[in-house]
Amino acid sequence: MPIFTSLYSRPMLLLVLTTLMWSGNAVASQLAVGHVSPMVIVFLRWGIVAALMSLIAWRDLVASWADIRPHLISIALMAAFGFSGFNGLFYLAAHNTTAVNMASCRAPFR
Questions:
Q1: DSSP run (H or E) holding 22
Q2: Distance CA 14, CA 3 (A)
Q3: What is the pLDDT of residues 8-44, one digit of tens each?
């Protein structure tokens, strides 16, 4: 895909965009306190990521399905405990701390 090729040739832009997205996530989660359940946010993130990944990598997923299928349970467990567990706790932490603390605590894990 030509858009990804042009983005990959600009690593500094990708680093800045990544930082902006993670800090925006911390600020948005802080703003959501009291309005939206942390688990709803995790569910919405799963849905958005699944939709985007299916658009971007559907052909590769279908082509590699024979290799992926035997490891599907392991992948699901890693996703549940890694992505969902970490983000659920991250959003629960938004009730007790500031967005700056949340972003700085999350930085070493990314």
A1: helix 11-31
A2: 13
A3: 788 899 888 888 887 787 787 778 777 877 778 778 8
The C-alpha atoms of residue 110 and residue 89 are separated, in whole angstroms, by 15
pTM for the complete prediction?
Answer: 0.54
Which residues are within 8 A (CB) of 77 and not within 5 positions of it... i.e. 6 or more apart?
Answer: none
Whether the CA torsion 45, 82, 70, 60 is positive or negative: it is positive
Residue at token pair 């932490």: 93
Q: Say if residues 38 and 88 touch (Cβ distance below 8 Å).
A: yes
Q: What is the pLDDT of residues 62-74, one digit of tens each?
A: 999 999 999 999 9
Q: Which residues contact 30 (CB under 8 A, 6 or more apart)?
A: 94, 98, 99, 102
